[in-house]
Amino acid sequence: MSDPAINLSSNSSIEPSISRYPVQSLDTLHDDILERILAVQEKAKFIPNVFLALAYRPAEFRAFFAYHDAIMERKGNTLSAAEKEMIIVATSAANGCQYCVVAHGALLRVFSKEPLLADQIAVNYLHAPISPRQKEMLAFSLKLCRTPELIQDADYATLREHGYDDEDILDITGITAFFGLSNRMAIVMNMQSNSEFYTMARAARQ
Q1: Whole-prediction pTM value?
Q2: How far apart are CA 116 and CA 129, in angstroms?
Q3: Which end of the chain is more exposed for a tag (fewer CB within 10 A), N or C?
Q4: pLDDT, tens digit, for every residue of 33-52?
């Protein structure tokens, strides 16, 4: 359990309405889970509710974030942070996951420095001001999201024509698949987005 010397601040009491399932206070969490949550809090200045909600099942929390880190922080990948968030926003919108559209829409605004882009991609990526190459990336990820049984060799050929290699394709696939899991968990848990996400990076940087 947590070290009593750690200052848990005002977040040690968590509002249970962020999830359909019980949400523990920070001072009851396992040390490794608490350490990760506090690190996120220090960087973001708040705790994203996904961390608090998923801590309900510690083993699954660890597995979830281990795979998240493996696909999102893989060494040697060529997708930019903004492009990864584009995939997450587009497929989360297709899956009807409010939490992930709101939270990752905020991250997309941060990484792209474009305050309108996340909303545009969530509604219809074809009308968003992104490159043809990025549109092909999203076309593939949405096809994989909605109708995976229709993926065929021609889809890989189209991606390669736009400069993606087999490793890129596997990265796109891993992100799409993982956030399909995340979307479904968030929906069933009735996970609520932090208010901070709604306004984050809404104004263009000077």
Answers
A1: 0.91
A2: 10
A3: C
A4: 999 999 999 999 999 999 99
